[in-house]
Amino acid sequence: MSADARLEQAATAENPAASETVLLKWTVHHLRRDPRKGALVAAALALAAGAGWYLFGSWLIAAAAVLMLLSSTAEFLFPIRACITNRRITSTCGAARLEMRWEDVRRVMIGEDGIKVTPLARPGRLDNFRGIELRTEGADPAVTRDQILDHVRSLRPELLS
Question: pTM value?
Answer without folding.
Answer: 0.76
